[in-house]
Amino acid sequence: MRASTFFYFAKFGIQTILFRKKDPILGTVIVTDRCNLKCRHCSVNNITAVMYSYSQIRREMEQLYDMGVRILFFCGGETFLWRDGEHTLRNLVTEARDMGFRIVNVVTNGTFPIDLPEADLILLSLDGDRARHNAIRGDTFDTILENVRNATADNICFYMAINQINKDAVRDVCLLAKETEHVRAVSFNFHTPYPDTRELALSREEKAACCETIARMRKAGAPVFNLPGAFPYLVENRFPTPCYQCVVMENGKLSTCGRCIAVPGLCQECGYFFVAEYTLLFRGNLRILLEMLTTYLKYI
Question: Which pTM does this prediction carry?
Answer without folding.
Answer: 0.95
